[in-house]
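Input:
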Amino acid sequence: MKIPYRDLSVKDSSLKDELLQAVERVFAHGRIILGPEVEEFEQQVAGFCQKRYAVGVNSGTDALYLALRSLDVGAGDEVITTPLSWIATLNAIVLTGATPVFVDIAEDLNINSQLISEAITPKTKVILPVHFTGRLCNIPAILEIAAKAKQTIYVVEDAAQAFGAHLDGAPAGSFGQVNCFSMNPMKLLSAYGEAGAIVTDDAQLYQKLRSLRYAGTVNKEDCHYPSLNGRIDTIQAAMLLVNLRYLQKKIELRRKIAEFYRAALKDVVTCPQEDDASHTYYSYTIIAEDRERLKDYLYSQGIETKVQHPILMPEHRAYRHLPKFHIPVAERLVGKILCIPNQETLTFQETEYVADCIRKFYGAG
Ligand SMILES: *Cc1c(COP(=O)(O)O)cnc(C)c1O
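Output:
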């Protein structure tokens, strides 16, 4: 059996037809740039996140960078974040000119909210937590810490991996002042190219984000803030509207796979906690002893896995000049995490084969 980590090809012919029809509608009306599908997509994303406004952008990276810029984050400001995320999180902070401050993670791979207070200084402007693997971090605690601080501290959710995740009915993206999503093809709600979105309840921030998305211009000409071109493509928005209709189904299927993996694997590796109905399983990330050998063994058995991510953000080459942070849990777990195939199109035989191989590796038969 050959099991890729992710297969991004569109095999379902009725879905393919729907996607092509959506693209054809865009071709027919011809409003390729910020066409009506963008607006429709933004309305649906905002509604989904229980926020007033959404701004479609070109990527999750743009979403993070523009969200920070909308809050005037820049040189002299500190942004508290996790060391374990895709490097885009850190790049966005650093590109604003702000200084990143890393707070260690907990065993669930998310930022440890109990350690955040002691990292706050008079320069702290933003706490930027990540809902890593599609599991919500302890966002209520983080909001409380921000609210209790002496100065104004904004919370910006990097919800790139968590569209559709909930906490007691409140969706990822509904918590902070400005919140960011990626809809790149790897994500659960995925486009067929780069895409992302930002949500907020604040009308002024909304206007500023729309401006920042297009060279910082007002009325498309006069530049008020130096910025990038971060517009979402109408064609991507049109296809995202199709995929939005199937998101809930996808999440349910991924939860079923997670349930199966947990039952089959919990005595040989550490599985994501099961008490958490909110998890969308962007990835099914296990914590495994002897990870490298397990990864190689699975590969030899035809199973492709992925380490998301093998290098902690502050340890990338570009960031080696940063001061050292006390992040022992992240340093320990980064060598043990492994994402195993969990996409909703896997058959039961395939997930069973993955679980069997992992059990065999640990001599559990
Ligand atoms: C995917 C991702 C991003 C960046 O999104 P892109 O759309 O790829 O630019 C940022 N943060 C996290 C946690 C991500 O997983």
